[in-house]
Amino acid sequence: MQSKLESVAEYLPEIVLEMVDLVGFVDVEKIINQFGGTTFRFTDGSVYFPRLKELIGLESAGKLRHYFNAEEVYIPRCETALRLLRNERLVADFDFITQGEKKSGRTAMLELCPKYQLSDRQAWEIVRTHQVQQYRQDSLF
Q1: Sequence ranges of the domains in the chain
Q2: What average pLDDT score do residues 116-122 get?
Q3: Would you say the pTM of this structure is higher than 0.90?
């Protein structure tokens, strides 16, 4: 199973990449989704370790506990990477609706803005920016 975070690895903070080296993208993505924005203590105690073990399993939790050795670690929210993923999904959905289903861009925005919790101005800007980047890449070849 491939993690969505893999495609935006270059935007992840160093501490997250250290965790990825230990347990892989899939488990780290779960950790970010569950604990992102909090300070986590990698101990054997009754608070942190049971939650981590339940989330990613005993083997991966044990690897992180051993590596960080009871250290308190801030788990970043990885907003930049997650925003890039959201934008990629939005553009893919927009393309599917407008090209695959042959609906108008405005109709697509009526469906997508609530789904991604964006204003139509933000969503249009994301789509335009992606189209400009795609055009520049296409013109190179």
Answers
A1: 4-77, 83-140
A2: 96
A3: no
